[in-house]
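User: As part of a screening pipeline, I want to sanity-check one entry by hand. Below is the sequence and the SMILES for adenosine-5'-triphosphate. Please return the complex as structure tokens so I can compare it with the automated output.
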Amino acid sequence: METDAPLVRVEGLGKTFGTGEAAVPALADVTLQVAAGEVVGLRGPSGSGKSTLLNIIACILEPSAGRLRLGGETVWDGAYRVADLRRLRRERIGFIFQFHNLLPFLTAVDNVALAMTLLGTELAAARARARALLDYLQVGRRAEAMPARLSGGEAQRVAIARALANRPRVILADEPTAALDSERARVVMDLLRQVAQDQQAAILVVTHDEKIFDRFDRMIALRDGRIEAAG
Amino acid sequence: MNLAFADIRHRLGRFLMTCVGLGLLMAVALSMVGIYQGVVAEALALTRSLRADLWVVESGTRGPFAEASRIPGDVREMIARVPGVDAAGAITLRTAEMRAPQGLLRAQVMGYEPGRPGGPAAIESGRGLGGARFEMVADARARLPLGAMVTLGGDRYRVVGTTRGLVASGGDPLVFIQLRDSQELQFKLAPPAARRALAAGSSAGGTDTINAVVAQLSPAADPDAVAETVRRWKHLAALTDAEQGELLTRSVVNRARVQLGMFTVVLLFVSAVIITLIIYTMTMDKLREIATLKLIGAPDRTIVGLVLQQAMLLGVAGYAAAIAIVFMTRGLFPRTVALGPAEVAMMAGVIGGICILGSLASIRAALRIEPQQALGG
Ligand SMILES: Nc1ncnc2c1ncn2[C@@H]1O[C@H](COP(=O)(O)OP(=O)(O)OP(=O)(O)O)[C@@H](O)[C@H]1O
Ligand SMILES: [Mg+2]
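Assistant: Here is the complex for your manual check:
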């Protein structure tokens, strides 16, 4: 793989929800890149299109216009789209959702291990790595708890462990620190920086939290679906 | 890890409640299959246990179970002399109400001559009829204990033995008395006008009228050939045991059989609709979880597996409950609930099929769930 090519490359991306009278333009002409090893922040007022952008990069939403390439593979290009978006998601992308989205019927450790077994990892090995990740995120002692018994911050960290489980090259996070106190928010951000370094991953994080702005290599600001400032 | 199992364990109480409800429904369907089989089995048990190779009845009738048949008593001797016939016995058959210790009892009363064909092949308790008059052998279904006194046609009979599984097509238990007693009974229970005619000797054969002759053939004899011989007497008809069995299951109990069969089909259809709805509800309750699975990249096979395995678990647990319920309650039914391994296995197959078919709509819906549906609060 070309190491210097950006892992995430978005060009002229647009997204309109609905059609005709009811059409809501959420994104217009968004172009950005995130290179391997880079941790980039995405900010903007509520409704500016941050989640929409992240969901398109995560292959969850279909864009209305523009192009998306992930690690050299074209995902969207006008009429073209990769046939199996879910394969792309489980193999390449770690997504930390705005609401943690853990499966309520699996323990914390199995929520993390599941992501690995979907890629064919042996259950025992998957659980071992899941435990190690949970320990690292300081929720190891809650490994056997069901999600309903976790606090918001604990659940968020389990979700982070799940996103990191398969060592994805692209990590997308929608307000991962919203449910955490500033101490833990810093721990999570340091971890993400570490992962970016170790795995040469491209990381894009939506955040409102000014206390952690200094943890990003650069910030991108969205307003009304357009890039306002790149720094 | 198994997602289907984990999810069920997560809401175990609800799942168990569903299984019990479904179990009751399947129990009804399974009982119907047993009742259906029971009607057929009971009809056949009757001819089997009389060990008759040939039934000789009135010409133009298919008696004595399907139609009324009256022939003179001396036919027995004629039949006994037919080549190939080992033994022949005269029988009478009529429905009568009797006064038993526990109240009025309706039964099919069969008269035969002890020592000749026509009596029960096996006695469960007590003994068979002896030489004494006014003795009775009753089927267990009549719930008459040994030694019980029963009033029938003004006479008091003593129960000396019991049989098992001998019931008429309507479900009435069979009781056996001596031919002589039964012929007198026939006379006593006949309407007054007919009785006067009989007493005056105007009717052919007088009181020595029987309903059929039961013949046992020698092992070498061909039942169809002997039947042919008998049919040469213009006033007689003959049915082989195979024909009698066919008649009992097809003609005599046919209405009941078809009725029960139809009802079983209706019940299976209702079960199929309810199972389909339950699986659909179970799946839609997991809409968010299924969307989440898609978000983290789970392939369709994982999602299909989840729905299908839960449907099968539901079917297995519900059917297990149904079997437990049916086998605990079958003794309470007034008629035979005939369920063997074959019926239980057949129903398992049907329910398995229903579960798979019932999952199809849910699988379709689950595959259509968009991953975005898991996003947002
Ligand atoms: N499924 C949808 N259908 C219609 N409109 C939508 C849909 N999802 C988002 N929108 C609209 O698109 C715009 C961008 O929404 P988006 O969720 O991306 O904002 P956001 O920047 O993530 O906001 P927040 O900070 O509140 O999470 C909003 O106007 C929103 O109402
Ligand atoms: Mg958002």
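Points to compare against the pipeline: Chain B touches chain A at residues 1, 3, 6-7, 9-11, 289, 292-299, 302, 371-372, 374-377 (CB under 8 Å). DSSP finds eleven helices and twelve strands in chain B.
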